[in-house]
Model the fold of this input.
Amino acid sequence: MNPAKPLPLFDPRIVPVMGNDSHLAGVALDRLTPQALRERFRHPPVWMPEHSVETSFSDRQPALAAVLLPLVMRDELTLLLTERSTNLSTHSGQIAFPGGRTDETDQDAVHTALREAQEEIDLPRDHVEVLGTLPTYATGSAFIITPVVALVRPGFQLRPNPGEVADVFEVPLAFLMNPAHHRRHETEFDGVLRQWLSMPYIHPAVEAQSELKERYIWGATAGMLRNFYRFLSA
Done:
């Protein structure tokens, strides 16, 4: 097997925004409730994912992986996300779902996602209600990812693994399911035109003196969220 090429290093924030999808309607709030999501997965619509395969920038063999989309059942649903540690070999420092590579002992993608979420942030399995999966998403770094969508009962206490996770935070699901917040980018790298989405979220200040913090959601995480939007709006 050929050694993997170095992953491209660049700041996605400096790539110009080509536009957003404010002309598309956001998912109605009555579809963003625990019961509505349960019904959607029990009786899924006919739909097609919008993003499935990224342009590859790795020579290594593809590897199976799974991620958890943990929807916390607060007054309004929020999505639990992580900021990856900067010492990781792939996607370091990026915003991501809890998850990772499939082990030989994993029974299926759901098992992988739940195991990884427990290892990364100590999310207790007895707080998680798995709803179903979304179509696989192939990243440019040669991971074939199965997104697993789940509801999470509040009351948990997370303990992020510092070797993998720098931070854990929540974003309102309604914000992410509004395509007005889906920004389109493209740039050329190694002679190949690469395209992706970003969904920057600014945390509101908790205190008057505290600084606003941007969570720059982009790439594969944004692509899978876009597919989730298509699933819910179909």
